[in-house]
Amino acid sequence: MRRFSIPSQAITQDRAQLSGAEFHHLRHVLRLGRGARITLYDERGATYHGEILRIAPTYAEISITQHQSAAPSSLHLTLAQGTLKGRKMDLVIEKATELGVHVIVPLVSAFTVARIPDGKRAERTARWQHIARAAAKQSGSPPPEIRPPQSFPEFLHSVPTPSGKLIFSERERTLHLREFAQHTTQFDSLHILVGPEGGFAPEEIQQAQAAGFVSVSLGASVLRAETASITAVALCQFLWRDIHSPLP
Known about the structure:
By secondary structure, the chain is of the alpha/beta class. The chain folds into two domains: 3-68, CATH 2.40.240.20; 76-240, Alpha/beta knot (3-Layer(aba) Sandwich), CATH 3.40.1280. Helix content is 31%, strand content 26%. The protein contains seven helices and 13 strands. The two termini are 18 Å apart.
C-alpha cells in the first residue's frame, strides 16, 4: 500500500518532503523511485495524491497533484481504556484507530494488572503511537492522539463539562446502552470509560458518576476487556456519528 504519513508542516503548496521512517519505508522497503505515484496523509486526516519528483539521501520530494481535506466528524470520541496485559492493549489501540477514535487515554485504575513503571511510560506511549500510525495507514482514518497513562482521578478531572460521558460496567443491571441512546439524539463530544481485565471497582464507578458519567451495560454476556472496548467504540460511532458523513 503506497500510503505514507506526513506532518502537515512538511507540505508547502504543491510540494512535500517525506523523511524519517516513512522515507526509509518508501526508499528501502518498497524501493520506489522518481515518477512513482503515492498517497500522503497528515495528522488532520487530509489526503494528498502525488508523484515522486526526486530522491535525496534523507528525503523524497513529492509533487502534490490532488488534495482532499478530511471530512468533518460530527462526533469527537475519546476512549479512556484501563491498560490491558500483553498484546491486548495493542489490539484495542489498533481497532480504535480503525474505528475513528480521536483520543485514547490509557488508564491506571484499581484493578489494573498491567501497570507500567514510570520509567517506561514514554517508551510504551511511543509504541502505541506507532501502532496507531500503522493502523491509520491501513484504514485511512487519521491517527488518534494517544496520551501518556493517567490515573483514574486524573482522567475524571480532565474531562470537560459539556461532553457526553459514559462508563461501561458489567455491574450495571438497569441501563443498557441501547436504552440510553433512545433518549440521547446527538453528542458533539463523547468520553467513554472501559475498564481493564477486572473491570472498575465499585468506588470508581461511584466517582465517575459523581463526575457526570452515566453507567451503561453492553448486555448480559461477560465480554473480554478488549472485546468490550472495541464493541463500545463501534456502537457509539454507530449511534451518534452522522452516518451520512464518511469516516475521515
